[in-house]
Fold this sequence. Notes:
It contains 19 helices and 15 strands. The protein is α/β, with parallel strands linked by helices. The chain has two domains: 7-171, Rossmann fold (3-Layer(aba) Sandwich), CATH 3.40.50; 186-487, tm_1862 like domain (pyruvate-formate lyase- activating enzyme, Alpha-Beta Horseshoe), CATH 3.80.30.20. The relative contact order is 0.10.
Amino acid sequence: MKETIDVVLINPGDRKQVYQDLGTELAAIEPPFWIAVIAAYLRNCGFGVRVIDANAENITPDETAAIVRECDPHVAAVIVYGSHPSASTQNMTIAGNICTALKENTAARVAIGGLHPSALPERTLREEDVDFVIEGEGPLTLRALLTEIKSGGDFRKAPGLWYFGGKEARSTRKAPLIKDLDEVLPLAAWDLLPMDKYRAHNWHCFDDIEDREPYGAIYTSLGCPYSCVFCCINAPFGKPGIRYRSPELVVKEIGALVRDYSVKNLKIADELFILNEAHYMSISELIIKNGFDLNIWAYARVDTINFDNLKTLKRAGVNWLGLGIESASTVVRDGADKRMRRKDIAEVVRRIQDAGIRVGANYIFGLPDDTTETMRETLSLALELNTEWANFYSAMAYPGSRLYDIAVKDRWPLPDQWHGYSQHSYETLPLPTKYISAAEVLKFRDEAFHRYFENPAYLSMIEGKFGKKVREHIVSMTKVRLRRRLLEGRDLAAV
């Protein structure tokens, strides 16, 4: 007897469009935990669920629609979430194409949800070929929507829903924030994902560059208590704040990944894992108690690191911490609501490294108060710190961030296609600053990337820590040059 499918959850993605040639081998292919955990919750509520990871399977919108048509669900929901502030909007182009294919080729009602749709719900409803936009976290809205549709009831009873009433865009009351994360974020439905398709970031596996698969990614918390001007991570939640899954459930989930899928490489996707000491230390101690052999990376802030805990984190398998340094300039950082001193940054980085944990430093060029000189200071700091990895970003006004609200109010130029919000796409368009153009920011960012990763001091450090093979990998990586529409035909000064 054929299984009845009530809802198909779809993870959109177009690696070529978003990453250009970096998407072929260098970029990670991350399992969509948020979709997998929604699937588990709905399945626990008695619904028949299917997941299509169109990104990992590398299939077209028409191929995705063909699978949905075969499933014949009540609802096909495209969830544009991602586990990084930049990971949602950049996928809206392909998400929209999938929605159109679903409307043209299936009988399912089409919904779209996630970070970007939550940030711009009415605009998303008007622009995309969908029946519903889900504003907010999603699980409670989807449960109510499916309940009403299956019973022949009124879908307008579902909270957090946008829809058309005639030609008028309408919305229901907002869905409440999830109170019990252990109930609504149970063990994810990993069995519904193509677990053999996922691979870790190249740098995450510098200790064994050939061992990037399998790969897992989980949340231990939702949200962030901070309000950085450039960040949109809290858009689905409506306000800053953080809620936690229990350490016991988190480690049970890790155990399932280890036991059932042989996962060693693990990303803790929380916006800020190293914050609540009781939470992250309990998880670390339970991992050690269970004897799991893991290679974990997670996010921290310079001002949330407790040096006394670093050895325990390392024993638990936390081999990488991502730090949001952003800028070397106090003026620029303060304008972005990140108040840290340069000497504090250097001290924290060294203490982390002394504990045997590698550092992935994150820098942003083109924040509102940036000048060419302050960007040079930031690059100088990056070269001085010489961390095992560094991400260089151009400032973007992501929908859901305060920077986006400012950009719209002041009519700053924004990308004309959603994938133009990708840091690595051909169509990318960062923000100008008060003093320099968007083209100058992007040129600086791209040249800074090559200055850093082609720096002899960096390559020497990498070879000393990880061996010649990883050095050669880095050299090969820097041969990839991103094409940029914004820079074509322009003669701009180099870094």
